[in-house]
Amino acid sequence: MRLSRAARITLGSISALVLVFIYLPLAVVLINSFNSSQNMTWPPPSFTLNWWVKAGESDAMFKAVGVSATVALASTAIALVLGTLIALALSRYKFFGREAVSLLIILPIVLPGIVTGIALNNGFRTILGINLTMATVIIAHATFCVVTVYNNVMARLSRLSPNLEDASADLGAGVWTTFRLVTFPQLRSALIAGALLAFALSFDEIIVTTFTAGAGVETLPI
To answer: Are 58 and 123 within 8 A, CB to CB?
Structure first.
């Protein structure tokens, strides 16, 4: 389909406005990081690298980055395993409550973060009697990271033909051999995309982390 010149100009203008709306605040924050004024007056009276030097000397910041990376990697690994298994189960088999399970998987990312955070806090401390630690943060992050992997894998599975797996089974390959040599290579790009989204969501999460992190557990957003 070919678009007219007016349509291309209109779409290009709208796209440019959306990009400006998204990235202009980030540009302001970046410029303010060189602002010599402690009150962050705008426009900056002069520029300095002092704040960047102080950030580079902050042991607490680097420790927080390490905690955030650890939590994000762990929750992403859990999400990859659970999200893939759930997607395979719901796409290949029909059973009672299948739609309800699908809804429960997607629910954590649909609900506001404060609702998820309070629910998990209450579940850990009141119902299970577990003290809040880094492990509770990882479990909490995994609950919504699973959704990104699940959605990507489900979308890919819906476009895959079962003929290759059937042919593999007909040639004598077992379930795990078929998954390793046939199914997994076709899911690889979807898994990578899901993992990247899960890592980014976990690394940037603050509301759920606030309700599920124990004393001394500080991620970079906090």
So the answer is: no
Q: Are the CB atoms for 149 and 195 separated by under 8 Å?
A: yes
The whole-model pTM stands at 0.74
Clarify whether residues 4 and 93 are in a common domain: no
Is residue 202 a contact partner of residue 72, using CB atoms and an 8 Å limit? yes
End residue of a domain, out of 15, 39, 57: 57
Tell me which residue range forms the domain holding 34: 1-57
In angstroms, the first-to-last Cα distance of the chain is 48
**72 and 52 both lie in a single domain:** no
Helix then strand then coil, % of the chain, to nearest 5: 75, 0, 25
Q: List, for residues 85-143, the tens digit of each pLDDT value.
A: 888 888 777 778 777 877 888 888 788 888 888 888 888 888 888 888 888 889 889 98
